Amino acid sequence: MSGAKNLASAVLAVCEERGLLLATAESCTGGMIAAALTDIAGSSSVVDRGFVTYSNAAKTEMLGVQTATLDAHGAVSAETAREMAAGALARSAAGIAIAVTGIAGPGGGSAEKPVGLVWFGLALEGHEVVAENRLFTGLDRAGVRAATVDSALRMVLDALKAG
Asked: What is the pLDDT of residue 3?
């Protein structure tokens, strides 16, 4: 069993145990987190929905990310990741939501936001929305996206075990 499949199975088991539904809000992964979860039989008892919000307009329309946030901080930022996660939680029946926004490459990076930079947002009902980032270096586009899926699932699992 692959790392992502093991993590996804663990996330589903803990959500099921706690009676929580889960939502995803994905930009750079384009639905890969939701796919990793729904590849597993029985995931429908846990996965509520996934938002693929690749464009800024989609982030605003589907998740309620503020245009002012995008203008001030950009799509790849802690602020946007937090608003994505909070929006997914608010616009679903989920008790936990994970959001990702980043630069998978090979182009699109800058000195301030290099290729491989991904921001993660996590919203757990009853807790403050959190954001953290990872910089995946030395990976191609597929590698950044796969590492993002693994990290997102790990973040959900850690939050569920802690909270």
From this structure: 80
> Domains of the chain, with CATH numbers?
3-162 (3.90.950.20)
> Buried (b) or exposed (e) across 12-24, using 16+ Cβ within 10 A?
bebbeeeebbbbb
Number of C-alpha atoms within 13 angstroms, CB side, residue 123? 28
Summarised one tens digit per residue, pLDDT across range 11-62 is 999 999 999 999 999 999 999 999 999 999 999 999 999 999 999 999 999 9
Instruction: Taking the CA atoms of 19, 155, 120 and 24 in sequence, report the sign of the dihedral they define.
Output: negative
Count of C-beta atoms within a 10 Å radius of residue 45? 10
- Give the predicted TM-score (pTM) of the model: 0.97
Amino acid at 85: A
In terms of DSSP bridges, do strands 96-102 and 117-124 run parallel, antiparallel, or are they unpaired? antiparallel
